[in-house]
Amino acid sequence: MKLLTVDTVSEAREKLLIAAQQKKKQIEFVELEEAMDRVLASDLVSPEPIPSFRRSTVDGYAVRAADTQGAGESIPVFLEIIERIEIGTPAVRMVQPGQCSYVPTGGMIPEGADAVVMVEYCEAFDTRSMAVYDAVSPGRNLIRIGEDIQEESLFLKKGTRLRPQEIGVLASAGVHTVPVYRPWKIAIISTGDELVPADQKPMPGQVRDINTYVLDAMSRKYGFEVVSKQVLQDQRNLLEKAVDSAMKTCDMVVVSGGSSQGEKDHTADVLDQLADPGVFTHGIALKPGKPTILGYDTLSETILMGLPGHPAAAMIVFELLAVWLYLQLTHQPAPAYTTAVVETNVASAPGKETCLLVELVDGDDGYIARPIFGKSGLMTTLSRAWGYTLIDMNKEGLKAGEPIQVILF
């Protein structure tokens, strides 16, 4: 083993980032219809203003605002109707003082007009005249050229996860092929002689596999492409074969279990043997999550990660390292957080960062963070948690009423 020094979370992240920056950028172009929930891989600048013409937001009459001044419910102003503009067709005639043109919602505002009076405040006086009962200000009931997107302006940033509303923005800007990051391919390997599938009743000494399902769900949540899932017995040759095969096709290989120093804990040796330069971190100053392994293989550009076997610890480490790294390299924002005050005094682990799971309850002045205590082998502790906070390794703990930042799951 080349290096067994325990790192802080920050040190481990820095090493991961340095290693992963060797990976080639993985960008592909997809059709707009396939871009939902993908991550934008470049900044997008509009070559034209959106909209490219002034549009009405109501059914009404395009007017010169100055012509309507003084109009009211009992004192209308009378304007000459010069044109009826159809939706989807250009306005032809320019509105002069004392004139107006009918325009539907979304229709083009003619030159000379600077506002629209809603039809509810208009009444036909004769076939060519309109009584207007509302005084409007310039810009009323219309959208200006470039009001949505200005010409040559940045309208979507890289790292944006595309929701239906962003799909609409892309369509409005005429973007029909979208540059997106190719999802990282990930292989999930869980090890343990005691593991049985979730649909099988465990025998004495056995437990149902949890980590494979949890890590699969987390991977899909954050946009990874899960290409393989395996549950292996604690045999070195099986692990070697599985990791070696996964490195040929995956961007990341995650091994859950076997990361400590027991007789059957082969993960660190196997990852270091198969990769070059191999393992650069074995052990993190974090509770829970100390027996974490990190490595990299230059030839296959594969990130290697060994997670603790305890489900809650595995999930927390995956969130803090694998998810963090992927968000960093695809320029996505960090997970959402909120502020809260701690409900009770909480002690921390000396010499380690402590990950404290909390549930949030409403208080008089905001959220109260109620600590969730439980051993890292118990999944129900996580199911109750809204999120977590990290207690600095140099702090003895948190005091009741102390404000904290809660990263939300």
UniProtKB/TrEMBL annotation:
<dbReference type="InterPro" id="IPR036135">
    <property type="entry name" value="MoeA_linker/N_sf"/>
</dbReference>
<dbReference type="Pfam" id="PF03453">
    <property type="entry name" value="MoeA_N"/>
</dbReference>
<dbReference type="InterPro" id="IPR008284">
    <property type="entry name" value="MoCF_biosynth_CS"/>
</dbReference>
<keyword id="KW-0500">Molybdenum</keyword>
<dbReference type="InterPro" id="IPR005110">
    <property type="entry name" value="MoeA_linker/N"/>
</dbReference>
<keyword id="KW-0808">Transferase</keyword>
<dbReference type="InterPro" id="IPR038987">
    <property type="entry name" value="MoeA-like"/>
</dbReference>
<dbReference type="InterPro" id="IPR036425">
    <property type="entry name" value="MoaB/Mog-like_dom_sf"/>
</dbReference>
<dbReference type="Pfam" id="PF03454">
    <property type="entry name" value="MoeA_C"/>
</dbReference>
<comment type="function">
    <text>Catalyzes the insertion of molybdate into adenylated molybdopterin with the concomitant release of AMP.</text>
</comment>
<dbReference type="InterPro" id="IPR036688">
    <property type="entry name" value="MoeA_C_domain_IV_sf"/>
</dbReference>
<comment type="similarity">
    <text>Belongs to the MoeA family.</text>
</comment>
<keyword id="KW-0479">Metal-binding</keyword>
<dbReference type="InterPro" id="IPR001453">
    <property type="entry name" value="MoaB/Mog_dom"/>
</dbReference>
<keyword id="KW-0460">Magnesium</keyword>
<comment type="pathway">
    <text>Cofactor biosynthesis; molybdopterin biosynthesis.</text>
</comment>
<dbReference type="GO" id="GO:0061599">
    <property type="term" value="F:molybdopterin molybdotransferase activity"/>
</dbReference>
<comment type="function">
    <text>May be involved in the biosynthesis of molybdopterin.</text>
</comment>
<dbReference type="InterPro" id="IPR005111">
    <property type="entry name" value="MoeA_C_domain_IV"/>
</dbReference>
<protein>
    <recommendedName>
        <fullName>Molybdopterin molybdenumtransferase</fullName>
        <ecNumber>2.10.1.1</ecNumber>
    </recommendedName>
</protein>
<dbReference type="GO" id="GO:0005829">
    <property type="term" value="C:cytosol"/>
</dbReference>
<feature type="domain" description="MoaB/Mog">
    <location>
        <begin position="187"/>
        <end position="329"/>
    </location>
</feature>
<keyword id="KW-0501">Molybdenum cofactor biosynthesis</keyword>
<dbReference type="GO" id="GO:0006777">
    <property type="term" value="P:Mo-molybdopterin cofactor biosynthetic process"/>
</dbReference>
<dbReference type="GO" id="GO:0046872">
    <property type="term" value="F:metal ion binding"/>
</dbReference>
<dbReference type="Pfam" id="PF00994">
    <property type="entry name" value="MoCF_biosynth"/>
</dbReference>
